[in-house]
Amino acid sequence: MTQNRKPLNILFFGPSGSGKGTQAEMLAKKYNLKRLQSGAILRKWAKEETEFGRKVQTAMNEGFVPSEWIFKMTEDEFRKVDEKQGLMLENFSRMLPEIKNLYNVLKKLNRKLDYIFLIDISDEAAIQRMVKRGTCQECEKVVVLDSDIQELVCSDCGGIIKKREDENLKSIEKRLKDYHSKTSEVLDYVRNNDKLIEIDGNQEVENVFKDIINYIKNNK
Ligand SMILES: [Zn+2]
């Protein structure tokens, strides 16, 4: 990449199990993007030994974090990224106020979303993938587990990877249902006000990645 080109800012949509985390990691490496996820930002702030950090922790334990707090944390984290580095964004826009806030924050920082991808996958395939997932207890990296192996060591940080306890079929189905009902409104908003690029997420990981890269190459 040439140095004087504006950094790429990419947003991903896709249900749990769509493989968007894996794709985001690969894209972030390829284009030197700072990968940001709303959940990770929340957990980071909740660990801080400040009054606000403790409030966030309490709110998370209670299962509801006010949108204004999330917006504040989002903006703070975005501001920390070097302006020459692009952003790889996930899960910042599950509901309408969130996507509107995202556009506002980016505008304030003189950034725009260059590509908005929806990694689309059938519920059946998403479920298949989710029941095989494990998460690193330290860095929260998500990996695919062999059916026999329930525990292994994280290649990134050496932490222990465990099968996610919330990954039983009922909770997965509920999560997908929630995703469809909340996200359809947001996706329509993007279709009407911006451009949503749909990628077939039912393919092998490498082919999904190829589709994304080819789209970017052909639509600069
Ligand atoms: Zn790890």
How do the SSEs run, as a string of H and E? EHEHHHEHEHEEEEHEH
Number of domains: 2
- Radius of gyration from CA coordinates: 17 Å
- Helix content percent band: 40-55%
Spans of at least 5 consecutive residues whose pLDDT stays below 50 are none
**CATH homologous superfamily of the largest domain - what is it?**
P-loop containing nucleotide triphosphate hydrolases
- Fill in the CATH topology of the largest domain: Rossmann fold
| Secondary-structure content class | alpha/beta
Distance between the termini: 12 Å
Overall pLDDT: 89
What can be said about the biggest beta sheet?
A: 5 strands, parallel
Counted by DSSP, the helix tally is: 8
Spell out which ligands are present. zinc ion
Strand element count? 9
User: What is the beta-strand fraction?
Assistant: 15-25%
Order the strands across the largest sheet as they lie in space.
2-3-1-4-9
| CATH structural architecture of the largest domain | 3-Layer(aba) Sandwich
**What coarse outline follows from CA principal-axis ratios?**
globular
* CATH structural class of the largest domain: Alpha Beta
Question: What does this protein structure show overall?
Answer:
This protein has 220 residues and is α/β, with parallel strands linked by helices. The chain folds into two domains: 9-123 and 171-218, Rossmann fold (3-Layer(aba) Sandwich), CATH 3.40.50.300; 132-166, no CATH class. It is 49% helix and 18% strand. It has eight helices and nine strands. The chain has helices at 20-31, 38-47, 51-62, 67-80, 96-108, 123-130, 169-193, 205-218, and strands spanning 9-13, 33-37, 86-90, 115-120, 133-136, 142-144, 151-153, 160-163, 197-200. The strands form two sheets. A five-stranded parallel β-sheet has the order 2-3-1-4-9. A four-stranded antiparallel β-sheet has the order 6-5-8-7, with no helix packed on it. A hairpin with a 6-residue loop joins strand 7 and strand 8. Helix 2 crosses helix 4. The longest helix is centred in the C-terminal third of the chain and has 25 residues, at 169-193. The protein is globular and about 50 Å long. The mean pLDDT is 89. The structure holds zinc ion. The site of zinc ion (ZN) has 8 residues, from loops.
